[in-house]
Amino acid sequence: MVIWMDDQELIDLFRENGFKVTAQRLAICKFILSRGDHPSTDQVYHALKIDYPTISLGTVYKTLDLLEELGLIQKLRFNESNIRYDPDLQLHINMVCTKCGKIYDYKAENIQNMWNVIISDLGIKPKGQRIDIYFECDDCK
Ligand SMILES: [Zn+2]
Ligand SMILES: [Zn+2]
Questions:
Q1: How much distance in Å is there from the Cα of 103 to the middle of ligand 2?
Q2: How far is the CA of 90 from the centre of ligand 1 (A)?
């Protein structure tokens, strides 16, 4: 599930954590929290540049890092130049197309149960988790 927050809740969260809220920051937050396609920093930047022509790539980077720090989004690092952002923090499978790079979320019905079994077998308390499957999507086949 994606965390849903209205403008005021986002503004409060930023302020509580000592960060200034700007229109651009707010726009970045709302954009990323509404997306299910795991955009990259570049994609966020290009999408918002239309409405916010003065936005910089640096602001996008910093804001996304901040959102990760605040626990609102998850950073999926594939390699140095391919970092994607996922607002879904619940256990799910990221299906990554190796051709076009699109990422589709897949929520297997019993994945949480399977995961609980694995975690209890391991006897650990995970600090995070990520499951990726690589494939070729329908658009690319
Ligand atoms: Zn995902
Ligand atoms: Zn594809």
A1: 8
A2: 9
Predicted pLDDT at 61: 94
Which pLDDT does position 6 carry in this prediction?
A: 85
Report in angstroms the alpha-carbon separations of 58 from 15, 95, 99, 130: 20, 28, 28, 26
DSSP H or E stretch at residue 96? strand 93-97
pTM of the model: 0.84
- CATH for 7-86 is 1.10.10.10
Other beta carbons within 10 angstroms of residue 61's beta carbon come to: 15
Ligand in closest contact with the CA of 129: 1
Say how many residues make up the chain.
Answer: 141
C-alpha to C-alpha distance for 14 and 10, rounded to whole angstroms: 6
Which part of the chain has CATH 3.30.1490.190? Answer: 93-135
Q: How many CB atoms lie within 10 A of CB 63?
A: 24
